[in-house]
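Input chain follows. Return structure tokens only.
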Amino acid sequence: MKTNRLIPLLAALSLAFATTLNAAEKPLFDTAKILDESTLETTILEDWHPVGTTRQKLIEINVAEWWPGQDYRIPVRLIVPLEGKAKGFSITGANPYETLMKDSKPTDFQAKLLAGGVGIVKTHVKAFRQIPGKQGLEQKMMRRFMKDLNPRYTTLWIWSMNLMRATTAAYAETDYFEKGKVAGSGSSKNGISPAVALINDERFTATCSNIAFAYYSPTRRADREVMAKVRAANKTFFEAVKIGDIDLDQERAKIYQRVMVGSEGGMDKMALKARKSMDEMQSFADRLWSSVCVTENWDRLMERGVDVLFQPGTNDYVAYDILWGAQNYPQLPVYYEPSGGHYHAAHGATAKDEENRDAFLWNHFFGGESLLSPPGSSHKVDGDKLSVRVSFNEGPQPTSGRIWWMFDRAPAGSAPFLHMPIPEDQWADMKRDAKTGAWTATIPLKEGASRIDFFSNHGHRPNGYQQYHSSPYTRVELSQK
């Protein structure tokens, strides 16, 4: 998935509240404006018509007047069963523009949602260069943003608004939709935007977010101690590249330079450009991230009874937080695709039959058999071996377990953290203890290694869909054994 221009914009979000007064006076999203059907200014491109076993309508709506004289309009395709109303819907922006403009043939899974009375809403959350008529809008947005540092002039704001305003448009069709559950899903920008919508729009009831951030960790806060370690690791890494000790093509090097902590899109560089102090920037960053990170809103979200699943991969800029997140929010349901992320191929031992999104959405809308719950894990160093035990103390028990590990991984947020995948030979199938139900593995320790990172994935098949859940990402300091 191409996100080259996304990265510095997301980094810039850390600055976004610089001139917006008080967060209580100027919330990131205005609920009244989101719910206002009169400002949708809907254009009907194709009215309701039968398509196979569905009825569909294609409209164009106004998300917002982004800045004076600049409306932001997007297409939305609404799909309901041929008979009766849809109660709630599954929504995603992960739809190519050309495909969105044509009648949609539901996938097998979407057909099952529709048969159960759940609607489908499709819209367009893409880079501006991929949207007809919006080329060049990114540059205009950035000029606005750098002028007054208003969070409204960020991709995160407009992408999340797309989903929330599309929801308003769907519910405006009262002859075809009735209020129910609203679940967002997707990857990258289409994983981040439904998570933000879930936090800021109480009509949303679930998000299945792939390659998306969930935590506001010290790495994401640009903690000074973290930054120092990352910069040292980056310096060593690129020096090794320069002398040929590390094989790195130029295009991938540019990617790392954009997404690593301390990049040109980082908070310190943006603060300099905006002529703001780092203390000012940090204060405003804290206000912003509290509105867009799921774990920063965990108690409130759990009180609403929402469902969440995050699948960040292990080698991506959204995965900088996975160790800190596991240590501080082990209750967040998560699946780590080994070596996964933007621009990365998954590890060869990654499960090929994973159907997490479908398992998640089916359970969210229809219930049935329960999904796996976050497990706990423990470990013990014994000479030249590490023993690991993973237990599912609540809910159903998995039928499989597989573990992956890495030695001496580079600091989170650094270029080598992104670059070095899990070695292809560093995995093993786990054994189930018949008495306790725990999953166990013994990992041979590498001589001279100072630390080891590990996590395991466990399989379960609820309601006919193959689910995998991960144990907490864990680091063991071997030098202290």
